[in-house]
Design brief:
Largest sheet: 5 strands, mixed
Strand content: 35-45%
CATH architecture of the largest domain: 6 Propeller
Helix content: 10-25%
Oligomer: single chain
Low-confidence stretches: 2-6, 39-43
Number of domains: 2
Mean pLDDT: 81
Number of strands: 21
Order of helices and strands: HHEEEEEEEEEEEEEEHEEEEEEEH
Radius of gyration: 27 Å
Strand order of the largest sheet: 2-3-4-5-9
Number of helices: 4
CATH superfamily of the largest domain: TolB, C-terminal domain
CATH topology of the largest domain: Neuraminidase
CATH class of the largest domain: Mainly Beta
Shape: globular
Length: 329
């Protein structure tokens, strides 16, 4: 009888322990579920709202309150805010010609190069034959420019005279980069680095990176080519997590720094020659005086006085003024 009582008590203890264990497991599973759900929801929010871009902006604003060797992007204010240019469609890429003090952009679907004044007014349109999908343009020197043809994955050297309205680049010098044979996520932006005599080219994403090209624009006909194409490793780690894509690039000869533009992050970041991020400009509503988000920034250029010009598809023009310039007026 005593043994039966002990056995009965033991069974009840075992049963209670199993119920308690099951209850604990349910609690743990419930906690894990809510932790997973919370993390997942936060990740979706960060991705959808692009909160990491804002975090980067404030990080640079507080980390680098003032740097005499940088553009101090945090101090820039919008001067021309989303000017609609009716004559343009699908504008992409931007460059500044210091000699004429004008801007040039490309229309990828219409195969046109368009010259603008610094207020976004169209000066002329130049029809281009022999290209497929122009996405970037940079001024080299005098009347020489390089355009990036994304779909064909090549750089094209073009001559734009002061009175040019039609250009045929079918037989113009071309350099096919050949790293990614085809597609629409290739080389988005190009800029001339006059200090190092090289072209800077950015690949949009999957993966994104910055590369340099030397020996192309100044190649002499009839002589052996001495072209070097390479990734700039110093920017690899810096851009890996900081920007979702690379839409364009501009080299500032005054500071020797690179400005990288990200459409998806709505952010401009300034990098020193050694790949260190030294500043950021947010293309978000409420930042730098913007009345609305810059919808699809595709081109960036820096003027002689440090002003930054942005072209956003399909036809929106922006100008940002540094504090030092604005204080003169």
């Amino acid at each position: 009888m005593l043994n039966e009582i002990h056995s009965f008590g033991y069974l009840k203890l075992v049963s209670a322990y199993k119920k308690l264990s099951g209850f604990k497991i349910k609690i743990v599973k419930s906690k894990l579920f809510w932790i997973f759900t919370t993390v997942f929801s936060l990740s979706i929010a960060v991705y959808s709202l692009k909160l990491e871009a804002i975090a980067w902006f404030y990080w640079h604003a507080f980390k680098n309150p003032h740097d005499a060797h940088s553009l101090n992007l945090k101090d820039y204010q919008v001067e021309i805010d989303g000017l609609v240019i009716p004559e343009l469609k699908n504008a992409s890429g931007f460059t500044h010609n210091a000699k004429t003090n004008t801007l040039f952009t490309v229309l990828n679907q219409e195969s046109q190069i368009v010259e603008l004044d610094l207020n976004g007014q169209v000066i002329r349109k130049i029809h281009v034959t022999g290209v497929d999908d122009m996405e970037g343009i940079t001024h080299i020197a005098e009347n020489r420019y390089v355009i990036a043809d994304e779909r064909d994955n090549r750089l094209v050297l073009v001559i734009i005279e002061d009175d040019s309205v039609d250009i045929d680049v079918t037989n113009a010098p071309k350099l096919r980069l050949g790293i990614n044979p085809s597609g629409n996520k290739n080389f988005e932006g190009v800029s001339w680095d006059d200090s190092n005599q090289r072209l800077l080219v950015v690949k949009e994403r999957d993966p994104k990176y910055v590369m340099s090209v030397t020996g192309f624009f100044d190649a002499e006909i009839g002589k052996p080519l001495d072209i070097e194409i390479k990734k700039i490793e110093t920017f690899e780690a810096a851009i890996k997590w900081a920007m979702r894509d690379l839409s364009s690039v501009a080299y500032d000869s005054e500071t020797g720094h690179l400005l990288l533009l990200s459409d998806e992050s709505r952010l401009i970041k300034e990098y020193s020659e050694d790949g260190k991020a030294v500043g950021a400009l947010a293309l978000w509503k409420g930042f730098h005086g913007l009345k609305a988000h810059v919808p699809q920034a595709e081109g960036i250029a820096v003027g002689l006085d440090g002003r930054i010009y942005i072209m956003s598809e399909p036809n929106l023009f922006y100008s940002f003024t540094p504090q030092t310039v604005k204080s003169l007026f």
